[in-house]
């Protein structure tokens, strides 16, 4: 059975008609066409499908689309402040080569966004803890950490 | 995903009635971090999912010095993990919460769900048992309160009857003379099921151990207490030699199995190591 779900995706109010047993991840990818959010394990282990729901990071594969009624969802597609501008995290990931195959990158970017919102100057340990639910099988963690620290510095400089 | 019917319960009465009327293969859905995985991996036959997140009154957290900490069935692990009261007064619970899954999982998973899943390796159960927590259970005919230590009857099994719903947990107050610890042993820190988990909650009076509860996770069909080890420690000053003897006794009291995560012998050895360490860590509250 399909239900209509009214929600906000990347700041835009939308309706989705979804099967009640459909995950938020499948709805975002297949119904809304936002394929930036990746499906890795589909059981909450890998973090590739991390999106922000009302500002909190969750695995989109472990949430039903019908639960998104009235919620605000942020995906990697909403990270760019404008069409021709990258988010400081995206820019830093490119400059540091923090993406190899790139499959984990959208989830890590969303997790890093939340991490820096809560903690603008994270230590290595803070980043490790913050990203412990996001797996990169190319094992590019060092460059990912470098990129996040670099973005943190730039975002702080931009604020002051 | 395998298909299932989705129901949204408006009240406890409604949810309980649905559980009974829809029959077997019907399950409550709160955080969903276990249930949706079990559906997708075909570990559980699920025809009906009953979402309880619209039920009012299950999201509260309260604390008072007489009753202690009470939280409802919809309170997430992440919310409790970040609660200053938990960080300050219940370091054992804080350690267990922060070690469960990942941040993303903890933002969805509920503590009550972790308990109702009744896994012997569940992280939240040992410290709650060591603290003497109680489970509040609703049914359409009466409410009952069960000590968490008496809630489990086997792996994945509990005393819940058809139509009964756990509405919340109460943890007794954290006394000034108490020390608490939870140690989780796994291959990595995050997204890991515990190989062994040991919780210790104790109180000291005039330099002697007034009371102590040791709860052992992932080394039996349910989380176990170690009553003989506890008896050896009560009334003592918890000196190193007594701790060592009691830790050895705890190794005898557990009943581990060998599986993909560790052998029974290894688990038993780790019970000895972690019990000693957990007692010492609990004593750091008095340093």
UniProtKB/TrEMBL annotation, chain A:
Name listed for the protein in its UniProt record: 2Fe-2S iron-sulfur cluster binding domain-containing protein
CDD domains tied to this protein: fer2
InterPro entries attached to this UniProt entry: 2Fe-2S-bd, 2Fe-2S-bd_dom_sf, 2Fe-2S_ferredoxin-like_sf, 2Fe-2S_ferredoxin-type, 2Fe2S_fd_BS, Beta-grasp_dom_sf, Diverse_Oxidoreductases
Keywords: 2Fe-2S, Iron, Iron-sulfur, Metal-binding, Oxidoreductase
One GO MF term: 2 iron, 2 sulfur cluster binding
PANTHER family: OXIDOREDUCTASE WITH IRON-SULFUR SUBUNIT (PTHR44379), XANTHINE DEHYDROGENASE IRON-SULFUR-BINDING SUBUNIT XDHC-RELATED (PTHR44379:SF8)
Pfam assignment, any one: Fer2_2
Domain 2Fe-2S ferredoxin-type stretches: 3-79
From TrEMBL, chain B:
Residues in FAD-binding PCMH-type domain copies: 1-176
InterPro entries, per database record: CO_DH_flav_C (IPR005107), CO_DH_flav_C_dom_sf (IPR036683), Diverse_Substr_Oxidored (IPR051312), FAD-bd_PCMH (IPR016166), FAD-bd_PCMH-like_sf (IPR036318), FAD-bd_PCMH_sub1 (IPR016167), FAD-bd_PCMH_sub2 (IPR016169), Mopterin_DH_FAD-bd (IPR002346)
Organism, scientific name: Shinella kummerowiae
Full protein name: Xanthine dehydrogenase family protein subunit M
Cross-referenced PROSITE patterns: FAD_PCMH
PANTHER family for the chain: XANTHINE DEHYDROGENASE FAD-BINDING SUBUNIT XDHB-RELATED, XANTHINE DEHYDROGENASE SUBUNIT C-RELATED
Keywords: FAD, Flavoprotein
GO molecular function, one term: FAD binding
Pfam families in UniProt: CO_deh_flav_C (PF03450), FAD_binding_5 (PF00941)
């Amino acid at each position: 059975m399909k239900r209509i779900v009214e929600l906000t995706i990347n700041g835009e109010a939308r309706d989705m008609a979804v099967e009640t047993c459909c995950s938020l991840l499948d709805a975002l990818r297949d119904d809304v066409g936002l394929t930036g959010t990746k499906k890795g394990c589909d059981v909450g282990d890998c973090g590739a499908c991390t999106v922000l729901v009302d500002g909190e990071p969750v695995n989109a594969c472990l949430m039903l689309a019908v639960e998104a009624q009235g919620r605000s969802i942020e995906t990697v597609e909403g990270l760019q402040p404008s069409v021709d501008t990258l988010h400081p995290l995206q820019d830093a990931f490119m400059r540091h080569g923090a993406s190899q195959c790139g499959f984990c990158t959208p989830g890590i970017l969303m997790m890093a966004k939340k991490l820096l919102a809560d903690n603008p100057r994270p230590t290595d340990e803070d980043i490790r803890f913050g990203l412990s639910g996001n797996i990169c099988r190319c094992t590019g963690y060092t460059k990912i950490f470098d990129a996040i620290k670099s973005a943190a510095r730039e975002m702080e400089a931009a604020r002051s | 995903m395998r298909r299932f019917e989705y129901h949204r319960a408006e009240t406890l009465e409604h949810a309980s009635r649905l559980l009974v009327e829809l029959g077997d293969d019907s399950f409550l859905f709160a955080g969903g971090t276990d249930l949706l995985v079990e559906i997708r991996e075909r570990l559980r036959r699920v025809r009906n999912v009953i979402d309880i997140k619209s039920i009012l009154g299950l999201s509260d957290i309260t604390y008072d010095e007489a009753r202690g900490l009470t939280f409802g069935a919809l309170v997430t692990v992440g919310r409790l993990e970040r609660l200053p009261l938990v960080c300050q007064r219940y370091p054992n619970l804080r350690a267990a919460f922060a070690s469960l899954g990942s941040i993303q999982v903890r933002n969805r998973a509920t503590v009550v769900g972790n308990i109702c899943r009744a896994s012997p390796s569940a992280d939240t159960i040992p410290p709650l048992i060591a603290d003497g927590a109680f489970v509040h259970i609703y049914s359409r005919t009466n409410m009952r309160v069960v000590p968490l230590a008496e809630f489990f009857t086997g792996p994945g099994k509990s005393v819940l009857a058809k139509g009964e719903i756990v509405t919340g947990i109460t943890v007794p107050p954290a006394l000034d003379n108490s020390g608490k610890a939870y140690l989780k042993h796994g291959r990595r820190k995050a997204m890991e099921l515990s190989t062994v988990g040991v919780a210790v909650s104790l109180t000291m009076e005039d330099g002697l151990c007034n009371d102590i509860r040791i709860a052992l996770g992932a080394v039996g069909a349910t989380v176990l207490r170690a009553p003989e080890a506890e008896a050896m420690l009560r009334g003592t000053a918890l000196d190193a030699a007594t701790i060592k003897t009691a830790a050895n006794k705890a190794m005898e009291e557990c009943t581990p199995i060998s599986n993909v995560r560790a052998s029974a012998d290894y688990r038993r050895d780790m019970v000895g190591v972690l019990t000693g360490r957990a007692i010492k860590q609990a004593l750091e509250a008095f340093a």
